[in-house]
């Protein structure tokens, strides 16, 4: 069902939100599974995360599929399908209930909230970490049935792999304690003493049993906080007071429940409301959550799945709920990938119990379940259509979310990539109006001004970007664009300084090396230009880059090397005329 439902994503391209940083413009990942890539994956803190297995997964896809986005998409689809099957097998094994377990897995497989995790290549970390989470849960069930050092070491290994895919799974030890309560029923004080349920142990003993897992969680939390703080991912969080973050967390919990029941208006980014949430909304959400919690706790002995499902949902969302704010989102569909399993458990065990108490035939329950599944399939199919292109995704996001400067920026960038520069400008201006300190908007407005001859204004806007953000990628782009603007002014000294500052931030940036080569060639230093262009081609070969290298070598009189560079250019394109024109345009600036 998953493969059929999600098959269309194999025809989708990468989108312009994180896919470029994770795959299409990431030189390390594009190189495939090399020794250098493996070393980089385990040492880098790129994208304010330490998730080496995710990087290696993307690198393997590049090894197998190159830049064919369909292959990268389909890996996500396959992992989601495997996760759904694993979820069914684990639940069926633990509970002995095949049909209820099947419907939980079915809801997980087709619920629209999971479209974001599956159809977005950059969210490989979500489906991959969930895979290791489920494997860890299965390993724990095997250990609980027959304890042994080997089985426990396997559990630790799988959990560590999950953390190295995405720290989202940090709550696994907490989930295992819930699993001890139900369905494993290992807790001595509340167990029905059924010998088939495994050995009974005091709750304190079960906590001690999981100390190594809690230690791994603590270590992962420390590493994650340090990496995200160093990468600037937590900078936006400092704008929000703790009361604002707490209020948003309560409303977000209620929002996730609403999405589970009525998955409409889904989008890849919901802007954080800051201090603008109405008090009544926060109080209403708090009351709803409190009432549900009280009901769940009071019925816990008779319907243990209620407590497990509810606290699975609440607990696994804690790292992403925004009490420690990372990024500018209020909530995110991708964060629900693991937590919603708890809600599905409540629904799929609670509905039959309710039907039995009301004396409703199981046939009617089966028909209702099929109807719900069909409705979710239809909504998921519609939601998938928004991921067919960056333009479609961000146009939809602008329609269904509050004023959203990130969506405006990304829609503008998609239009620029399509050559519709004038159509893009209003979106960048809208983003700057919504959030005046938006560096992406001003970077793009500056680029437009540079391209339309407003050089001085463009340089000022690029300089403002440098003061707005610590993001190294944005700073490098601003410096590169500033270098290009200075080249248009024939101020080659300032242009060279700008490119050098970009390379000081990111020494392996090929565009900055090309800029250095252009400055050298326009300054009459062909030898230095050739060296700069050659360095750029080592990092990211392009037809235009090799044409520039060819010109520099020709000016040096290196005819044979120039011909070789021209031949390399021809290998990379079927339209040499366009490459020559693009190179000539760069030299004419």
Q: If you compute it from the alpha carbons, what radius of gyration comes out, rounded to the nearest whole angstrom?
A: 27 Å
Give the tally of β-strands.
Answer: 2
User: Helical content, roughly?
Assistant: over 70%
State the domain count: 2
- Termini, distance in Å? 54 Å
Please state the average pLDDT score: 93
Strand line-up of the largest beta sheet: 1-2
SS-based class: mainly alpha
Query: What's the story with the biggest beta sheet?
Result: 2 strands, antiparallel
Catalogue the unreliable spans. Answer: none
Global geometry: elongated
Report the total helices: 30
Protein architecture, described:
By secondary structure, this protein is an all-alpha fold. It has two domains: 2-385, no CATH class; 508-589, Serine Threonine Protein Phosphatase 5, Tetratricopeptide repeat (Alpha Horseshoe), CATH 1.25.40. It has helices at residues 2-5, 19-24, 27-30, 35-43, 52-65, 69-95, 98-110, 115-119, 124-145, 149-163, 172-181, 203-209, 211-230, 242-261, 279-298, 304-317, 340-357, 362-385, 390-400, 405-417, 421-434, 439-451, 455-468, 472-488, 492-505, 510-522, 526-539, 543-556, 559-572, 576-588; strands at residues 270-271, 329-331. It has a two-stranded antiparallel sheet with strand order 1-2. Helix 4 (35-43) packs antiparallel against helix 5, helix 24 (472-488) packs antiparallel against helix 25 and helix 24 (472-488) packs parallel to helix 26 (510-522). It is elongated. The model has no long low-confidence stretch (mean pLDDT 93).
